[in-house]
Amino acid sequence: MSEEFELLKDEIKTKKVRYISFMGNLQRYDFAFMENEDDPSKVVVIYLQKNRFGIIGKEELRNKGHLEHIFHETQMEADEIRKFLNEIL
After folding, report:
1. Measured between alpha carbons, how far is 19 from 33 in angstroms, rounded to an integer?
2. What digits encode the pLDDT tens for the residues 68-88?
3. pTM of the entire structure?
4. Burial of 87 per CB tally in 10 Å (0-12, 13-18, 19+)
5. What is the rounded CA–CA span in Å between residue 83 and residue 8?
6. Which of 1, 13, 43, 55 has a CA-to-CA distance to 61 between 20 and 30 Å?
7. What residues contact residue 1 under an 8 Å CB cut-off, 6+ apart?
8. Whole-angstrom Cα distance, residue 35 to residue 85?
């Protein structure tokens, strides 16, 4: 590694990842879920088709517009994702 950079953190961790794909009324959705060590009440949700992610808990699901913003989805698609995530989280 170059001497130009001062490493602040460099660690390797093994995590469990849960992959779930489902067919909604509008389209197919593929997600990966990882636990969040900083806040156990939230989960790292990766939207695999769009290559976007968010740290989401029940509070974020209640905030209208949040999923639309982080996943770049329409309100109808975000509502479908929100309904699914309410069951999973």
Report:
1. 6
2. 999 999 999 999 999 999 999
3. 0.85
4. exposed
5. 39
6. 13
7. 7
8. 14
